[in-house]
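Customer escalation, tier 2.

The customer says the design service returned an amino acid string that "doesn't look like it belongs to this structure." They asked us to rerun it and document both sides in this ticket. The original structure tokens are below, unchanged.
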């Protein structure tokens, strides 16, 4: 039975990666310097959600979504792992591709397919930010300011992504989930700025809880994340020192000024690879 399931998912993945016009449009434009901004606008359904200087990628994504019908895709369930005592959704393979712990085959319409690809791309970029933060501190523990600046950019992108994902299907909002280990590891990296983190992340967590009402496993994962962020914030109250140069402070002051945050990740970055785990990882 397991062999049949593996063959089915592998076959479906092959058809998806070869035949989906939405994937083709995504791959052709994912290295555009404003692709993250284009994806945020697409998810939000609003051209001015993130102001763009070049909307070619956004236009191509919309055209592909409008012109092409439904296609099969592998998405990932979000669940709570009792053994690991942590929610699980996706992980990063050695080749920097996203794979899912619990892959699931679904059929999505043209618009929802592009939304899913964009959500995965943005979340992948945030994960790359986490890895970079960890790498910075491992190489030089004294580079804490650089790691903190990157953490603020991560949070800005995460919050904008959460805003654009409001009301979207659960397979999109699942990408807002952050494993509890991100808030417990000491010395591994600075993933998000710690000051008042629960106040900033409460809306994304609420969106996740709302999408998990009918799934106890998913609800447990989101609830644990909420408790972890709450405890993390409470134990880091002394860190509430936002400098004048803080990009997070600029976000609150100017709201839509994200150019420095969303354009920088596109430099020397490849697309979030179209590779999904065909078998569950334990």
């Amino acid at each position: 039975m397991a062999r049949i399931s593996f063959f089915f998912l592998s076959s479906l993945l092959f058809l998806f990666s070869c035949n989906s016009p939405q994937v083709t449009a995504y791959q052709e434009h994912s290295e555009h310097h404003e692709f993250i901004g284009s994806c945020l606008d697409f998810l939000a359904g609003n051209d001015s959600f993130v102001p763009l200087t070049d909307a070619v990628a956004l236009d191509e994504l919309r055209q592909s979504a409008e012109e092409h019908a439904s296609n099969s895709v592998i998405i990932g369930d979000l669940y709570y792992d009792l053994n690991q005592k942590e929610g699980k959704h996706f992980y990063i393979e050695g080749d920097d591709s996203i794979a899912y712990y619990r892959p699931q085959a679904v059929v999505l319409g043209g618009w929802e397919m592009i939304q899913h690809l964009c959500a995965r791309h943005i979340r992948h970029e945030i994960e790359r930010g986490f890895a970079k933060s960890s790498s910075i501190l491992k190489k030089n523990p004294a580079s804490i300011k650089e790691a903190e600046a990157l953490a603020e950019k991560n949070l800005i992108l995460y919050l904008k992504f959460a805003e654009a994902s409001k009301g979207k299907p659960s397979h999109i909002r699942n990408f807002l989930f952050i494993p509890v280990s991100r808030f417990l590891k000491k010395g591994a990296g600075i993933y998000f700025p710690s000051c008042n983190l629960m106040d900033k992340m409460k809306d994304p967590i609420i969106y996740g809880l709302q999408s998990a009402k009918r799934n106890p496993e998913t609800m447990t994962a989101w609830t644990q994340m909420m408790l972890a962020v709450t405890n993390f914030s409470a134990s880091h109250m002394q860190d509430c020192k936002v400098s004048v140069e803080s990009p997070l402070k600029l976000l609150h002051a100017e709201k839509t000024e994200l150019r420095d945050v969303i354009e920088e990740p596109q430099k020397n970055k490849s697309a979030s690879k179209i590779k999904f785990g065909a078998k569950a990882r334990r």
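Tier 2 assessment: The sequence is consistent with the input. The first helix runs from residue 2 to 19. Residues 2-266 form one domain. Sent an explanation to the customer and offered a walkthrough call.
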